[in-house]
Amino acid sequence: MAGANVRRWLSHPITRGLDLDDPRTTDERRRLIASKPFLRDIYQDWYRTISDGLPAGDDPVLEIGSGAGFLDRFIPGLLTSEVLACSGVRLVLEGGHLPFADASLRAIVMTNVLHHLPEPRRFLAEATRTIRTGGAVLMIEPWVSRWSSFVYRTLHHEPFAPDAPAWEFPRGGPLSGANGALPWMIFERDRSTFEREFPQWTIERIVPSMPFRYLLSGGVSMRSLMPQATAPLWRAVERSLRPWMTSWAMFAEIVLRRC
């Protein structure tokens, strides 16, 4: 109850009370990101990380869950997609059913999306089928640490269940269903299971990061807690904590390489 009251008090007026599964909410979140310089800078950092890590080549790059973002400004020709029809998105599709030929994609990229996929094995199987040898999946996703477990359970509206026995979770609305701990479960807790079931992939790197900046920016649902002018200070604080990110990280960059 206390956590719900805090979330209600911190919620941003633009998105307060909106249905997460309504395409208009995605449009409002796009407007919110554009209006919050602190948050917009974070997305730019994430997008540079993703674009800089892409494998070379001319094959298409697919973004799943493009929604409110603007990654297409960083990756020319990006195939943007969303599970619901919304403005600015080229394709409507689900992560478990990709309408592409075998080995036709250079990469799949996503930001805060994997933990919304109720059947992640189906997505991983489709990624295996559609991405060519040497291609990659590049993600920015929530991560599990002592700090993030407290924050996500107290301040975030999405379920966060690192102790869930299965990767799958009940299918809810297309955007409201989630388990924020899912990426950590697959690639850290159950890494041996992932490697056994999907031997076509190598986990190239996992870089936990960003314990404070996203939280202080308010994200896409809360009001900003700090002015944008303080962003360099918080960036410096996070750099100083790099040796201890396993305890502090709220997000992680995850890169899978297709063998």
Description:
- The chain is an alpha/beta fold.
- 36% of the residues lie in helices and 17% in strands.
- It contains ten helices and seven strands.
- A seven-stranded mixed sheet has the order 3-2-1-4-5-7-6, with helices on both faces.
- Strand 4, helix 4 and strand 5 form a beta-alpha-beta unit.
Summed over residues and divided by their number, the pLDDT gives a mean of 91
What's the number of helices? 10
What would CATH call the architecture? 3-Layer(aba) Sandwich
Task: State the end-to-end distance.
Answer: 47 Å
What is the percentage of strand-forming residues? 15-25%
- Low-confidence segments, given as residue ranges, are none
Précis, in short:
The protein is α/β, with parallel strands linked by helices. It is built from ten helices and seven strands. The model has no long low-confidence stretch (mean pLDDT about 90).
What is the secondary structure topology, with strand pairs?
Blueprint lengths: L1 H9 L12 H13 L1 H16 L8 E3 L15 E4 L8 E2 L12 E7 L8 H11 E12 L3 H10 L26 H8 L1 H7 L3 E9 L3 H5 L13 H10 L4 H4 L2 E8 L1
Parallel strand pairs: 1-2, 1-4, 2-3, 4-5
Antiparallel strand pairs: 5-7, 6-7
Helix pairs in contact: 6-7
